[in-house]
Amino acid sequence: MHRSEITIDLGAVRHNVRRLLAALRGAQVWAVVKADGYGHGAGDIAGAALGAGATALCVATVPEGLALRREFRTERIIVMGPALNREIAQARDAHLELVVSSEEIPSGVRVHLKVDTGMGRWGVSELMTPALEVVGLMSHLATADTDAGYADWQIERFRTATAPYTHLERHIANSAAALRYPAAAFDAARCGIAVLGLSPFGGDPADDGLRPVLRWTSYVALSRLLRPGQSTGYGRRFVAEGDTWIGIVPVGYADGFRRDLTGTTVLVDGEPKRVLGTVSMDALAVELDRAVPEGTPVVLVGTGVLLEEHARVAGTITYELATGIDSSPTRARRVVVDA
Ligand SMILES: *Cc1c(COP(=O)(O)O)cnc(C)c1O
Description:
Blueprint: E1 5-9, H1 10-24, E2 28-32, H2 34-38, H3 42-51, E3 56-59, H4 62-71, E4 76-79, H5 85-93, E5 97-100, E6 111-114, E7 134-138, H6 148-162, E8 169-173, H7 175-180, E9 188-191, E10 214-219, E11 222-226, E12 231-232, E13 238-239, E14 244-249, E15 265-268, E16 271-276, E17 284-288, E18 297-301, H8 307-314, H9 318-324, E19 333-337
Parallel strand pairs: 1-19, 2-3, 2-9, 3-4, 4-5, 5-6, 6-7, 7-8, 8-9
Antiparallel strand pairs: 1-10, 10-18, 11-14, 12-13, 14-17, 15-16, 15-18, 16-17
Helix pairs in contact: 1-3, 4-5, 8-9
Bound molecules: pyridoxal-5'-phosphate (PLP).
């Protein structure tokens, strides 16, 4: 047995990419695998996504791009964040493509010029005639998951600004836009969260035909009976009113089960149970209705336990929870299934 086990389902990745391709009706899917594939494992996610028809990989940094290049010798890899001066030569040598947010275009490397249409972050405000190195024009949506009116306005600004350059690849859509805004498709959509089967809208991924890729399980290492007035964990945040059985699970915030997940629900032997008291670095407590044997399985994330629900409890988004999960061998056993 392992303290915790993280299972990555490559069949689900392929299903999600096919779902996105169907929604995009002819536009390409570029798989965004920055931050180690949002904590899911960049190489595994990238390989499965390419196998299902994704035609490029997107990352945030040149080092992320260089690491992927070792595994993917010929595929297109696009670095979406800014490159430092010394990284430009490395990107050129490794045939990475760069995103540039100014009129200063490096030579000898394929460039996507970013136009700011309303995100108010990276990008040029005014699009001049692009230099020869420029192969793509891109922008990024600020509200594809929340404000349709603003997203539509950004998409139309992008269409107008780039209309003279339809010979270049144009891309603005992220996962939310790929699923909900056909007008945002252009030539390609850069999709991260939906490839992982997580809802860009914070709801049930099944509503958009997506299948979660990550499953996270552990076990009850100890059952104990709290008598009235006894408590569990730091700060005594949970004090038993009557006799209360609790189970201690050897996973905590250092593993990525965050401290603000008190009150969320996990499955103990298939039954929904509340997380009680303060989540510690290496352990958490769940409410039980009886003693359970040591080794009783606990599903922290998986069928019946949506990461979206944990995100709602923690007041954050699945992106932040997923990137926080530590699947390194010192903390968890990571299993890749390719069914
Ligand atoms: C991370 C990122 C994406 C992917 O967004 P998802 O919501 O995960 O699909 C797309 N474009 C840019 C520029 C990004 O930084």
